[in-house]
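Hello Y.,

Per our agreement to keep a running log of every chain we model this quarter, I'm adding this entry. I've kept the format consistent with earlier entries: sequence first, then predicted structure.
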Amino acid sequence: MASHIKPWAYSDNKERLDPFNGLLLLPNIDKAFDMGYVSFDETGKILISDDFGDFGLLGIKRGMQINIKDKNMPYLEYHRTQVFKG
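Predicted structure for the entry above:
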């Protein structure tokens, strides 16, 4: 699934259409990302909120990593500071 990094509701029209404001994630990770229970650091390593109970039941594991681009960074910074419950 494609997920906006900076949520649609908080993005301007340019950000909504920017391909770097999106990630392709598995549905289980996409939902947790949208809800702020996971995010990604500047290297693409998954961050898991302490508030996220049995994340392993959803197949989410510490050490997971995605490929990110430099142009994703401002959006990921927004997500980590405004959405992520970490």
